[in-house]
Design a protein that fits this description.
Largest sheet: 6 strands, parallel
Radius of gyration: 15 Å
CATH class: Alpha Beta
Structural class: alpha/beta
CATH superfamily: Aldolase class I
Shape: globular
Number of helices: 6
Order of helices and strands: EHEHHEHEHEEH
Oligomer: single chain
CATH architecture: Alpha-Beta Barrel
Helix content: 40-55%
Strand content: 15-25%
Length: about 140
């Protein structure tokens, strides 16, 4: 599994992918918690596509966090997002997981491993490089 970096902007996504490209490692870009609801699935998809266009050789996964918003999960799936995070009820999660699977997408929950959030990084590129290289320090 690739290391996860939470991005809040195109600049942060570019920094994370630039670091992954320089190190030759895969990366998972994640939205901030609940970003599916306040920023929207199409915003996230456009952000990922723009960043990936600049680093076509990097193995990238992307996860849109929809929090407990089932409707946002459905919007994300309709927008073509293939990995979404949902933290709502188990019953709703099961229904959404079945719908996601039918479209070739996947639902995630709280699990996922070590994650770097670039929100407060003074130098997002340096923070991403250090994190992806295995050094969790924050420049």
């Amino acid at each position: 599994m690739s290391r996860r970096i939470i991005v809040h902007s195109l600049a942060e996504a570019r920094a994370a992918l630039g670091a992954a490209a320089a190190l030759g490692v895969p990366v998972t870009l994640m939205s901030a918690a609940g970003a599916g609801a306040y920023a929207g699935p199409r915003w996230f998809k456009a952000l990922i596509e723009a960043a990936c266009a600049e680093h076509p050789g990097v193995a990238v996964d992307a996860v849109l966090d929809c929090a407990e918003e089932a409707g946002t999960v459905m919007s994300a799936l309709r927008a073509g997002i293939t990995r979404v995070r949902f933290t709502g009820s188990p019953a709703m999660r099961d229904r959404l997981a079945a719908i996601a699977a039918a479209t070739g997408a996947a639902l995630e929950d709280e699990s996922g491993g070590e994650t770097l959030d670039l929100l407060e990084a003074r130098d997002p590129a340096a923070a991403a490089r250090a994190f992806l290289a295995g050094n969790g320090s924050r420049p």
